[in-house]
Amino acid sequence: MIVVPDPRHKKVLVLRDTQGIAPGHAVLPPHLIPIVARFTGRLTCEQIARAADVPLEIVENVAEQLDAGLFLEGDTFSRALDRVRADFADLAVRPASHAGGAYPGDPGALASYVAKDCVAAARPKKIEGRIRAVVAPHIDPWRGAIGYGHAYGALAASLANDDDADTFVVLGTSHAPMSAPFALCRKAYDTPFGAMPVDEAFVDELAAAADFDPYADQLNHKREHSIEFQAVFLKYALGKRAARIVPILAGLGEEQARRSEPRKTASVARFLDALRKSISKRNGRVIVIAAADMAHVGPRFGDPKPHDAEHRLALEKTDGASLAHASAHDPARFWDHVASDLDTRRVCGLAPIFSMLDVLPTARGEVLHYEQNVDPDDGSIVSFASVVYV
């Protein structure tokens, strides 16, 4: 959910379904928030009405609308969830669900945008040595064009001198809650440039090694943009070159909630060990990509006001310290540094970056780009970086 400006109410709370079950958004004006906040499943409509000091019919009307819109748990939502889950399970290819919105859906227009507005505008640095891993943004490409240009411009140049790389493990942020620490998907990822096939044998190795259900949260792949955007830029960077991806959504929700180092959880350590082993046995053919943004601060994310120049400078310093730990290939220190202020800085790329660092053999990282994208309406900030490892 996010807070957005509204001409009538000044601000409204927008509920978004990141799984793609609900067909639209739910917009809550301020006077309804105390009501909806009590929709926990533990109170009746009558009890909510008394607690919020509003007429019962208002509570019932809000509940009916949220139920019809699939924003309340219950029979209506359960039936819709079963239908969507079954439909997605039957697909061989995961559709490019954000094409035509977050980025151009026409392949010609998309190629022109990536070439000119992303890569050419970034003028990416030439990297000495073979790139083995990348941290790339997952912010909407129209807002993160320069960051994507640095990451994938450098990667494309490296691939031109690397005949071996043919497999890309893409660790993405899951913006929807997950019941398991990681979620696999055996479906190709479609893009306007054509589908990015999946290395099914690689995925099957990870699934066999996991001691949790790695497909329990496969539905999260349906609408999740973090991996989709990487598939688009990868397909562009690869051109006609054949390659496959291994799409993995990294949640680590319990570990983030507890601020506990992930390797202390046996099932997480087992999965990461299996991923490291599968990468190692492919003898240099694998490049790992962490699809990860950094901080989310400002009114849109629940803060009382936007960051001024002093606070933006402080944020850049804090983000820089986190990126220094990542560049030094120190997953434990990176985790601890980001987890220490997770409730206020809201770094959504913690899980994928940590996982990438954990499974990556010794490598040297270099930050190519750091940016704070400022929302023109309310001053909220999403920060992100492009980092390569050789």
Concise description?
The protein is of the alpha/beta class and 390 residues long. Helix content is 41%, strand content 17%.
Distance between the termini: 37 Å
Q: Name the structural class.
A: alpha/beta
Strand content: 15-25%
- Would you tell me the overall average pLDDT? 94
Tell me about this structure:
There is one protein chain. It contains 14 helices and 13 strands. The chain is α/β, with parallel strands linked by helices and 390 residues long. The strands form three sheets. Strands 5, 6, 7, 9, 10, 11, 12 and 13 form an eight-stranded mixed β-sheet that branches. Strand 1 and strand 2 form a beta hairpin. The chain is globular and about 70 Å long. The protein starts with a strand and ends with a strand. 42% of the residues are buried.
